[in-house]
Design goal:
Blueprint: H1 15-24, E1 35-43, E2 48-63, E3 66-77, E4 87-96, E5 102-111, E6 114-123, E7 128-131, E8 134-137, H2 145-152, E9 165-172, E10 175-190, E11 194-203, E12 218-222, E13 229-235, E14 240-249, E15 258-261
Protein name: DUF3108 domain-containing protein
Pfam families: DUF3108 (PF11306)
InterPro entries: DUF3108 (IPR021457)
């Protein structure tokens, strides 16, 4: 349930325009007080079983005189499912409200008994990241794994064609990855919550504790100015998962992508 949307970079059309998105975009998609809650379903080839929850919140804060968004993502398995695989993941990022670049990133993970914690601070003026007391050089506009998701919500997908890859750089596990999000087009999607007009994208994953590397995850985001995730489909080490948006509060823009809600 890490939701680490990451990929190796390829030569692509519109690359200059795509890189501009990540270095010069301004936030138009979310605001203080936004809350998104998702349900996670697991499938081994027969039926979909409720397996856990993930919640993302956004709060405006002052960090040493700097206006930031504090974004927190928390994922956990359902208690009835923990006999198989227990997850308690907490991701936190502090994002500069003007530049949309991360200032600090904290990752506290417990997946199947594997526990680790990372705490990274960024100095983008010096193109530097500090993790566990060590300095690392980073490219301009480098994101962390959580800030990248929110930064990607501000991409103007109307500028791209199906198959285009939108590149960016991410600092994760003390390494810089050159990554992309692949734009797949638009479609109407039916989820556990309802029916929505959606933008379809595919991040190529980095190998992790749950996900294997490759262009295997598919994400649908709302086809409106919010670009909130509606559904995530992905194979995992054993079986596959489906993540559906179930609750949303304090969206910045009208939820124009909504067609109808299920009772």
């Amino acid at each position: 349930m890490t939701l680490a949307m990451a990929a190796m970079l390829y030569a692509i059309p519109h690359r200059a325009a795509a890189q501009y998105d990540f270095c010069n975009s301004r936030n138009t998609s979310y605001k203080h007080g936004e809350r998104l809650k998702f349900k996670v379903y697991y499938n081994m080839g027969f039926i979909w079983i409720y397996a856990g929850d993930a919640t993302f919140t956004t709060t405006s804060k002052d960090l040493g005189g700097q206006k930031v968004f504090y974004i927190a993502g928390y994922g956990k398995t359902a208690s009835s499912y923990e006999w198989f695989y227990k997850v308690r993941d907490m991701y936190e990022t502090y994002v500069d409200q003007e530049t949309m670049l991360p200032v600090r990133f904290i990752r506290d993970v417990n997946e199947g008994g594997l526990k680790f914690k990372h705490d990274v601070t960024f100095d983008h003026s010096k193109r530097n990241a500090v993790s566990a007391g060590k300095d690392y050089q980073i490219p301009a506009c480098t994101q962390d794994v959580l800030s990248a998701i929110y930064f990607a919500r501000n991409i103007d997908y109307s500028r791209y064609h199906p198959g285009d890859r939108i590149p960016f750089d991410m600092f994760l596990d003390d390494k810089v990855y050159s990554l992309y999000i692949k734009y797949l087009g638009k479609e109407r999607i039916e989820t556990k919550r309802g029916t929505f007009n959606a933008i379809k994208i595919a991040p190529l994953l980095i190998d992790g504790t749950i996900f294997s590397g490759g262009e295997k995850m598919t994400v649908w985001v709302s086809d409106d100015k919010n670009h909130i995730p509606l559904r995530v489909n992905s194979p995992i080490t054993v079986g596959s998962i489906k993540v559906d948006l179930m609750e949303y509060d304090n969206l910045r823009n009208p939820f124009d992508a909504l067609v109808s809600l299920n009772n």
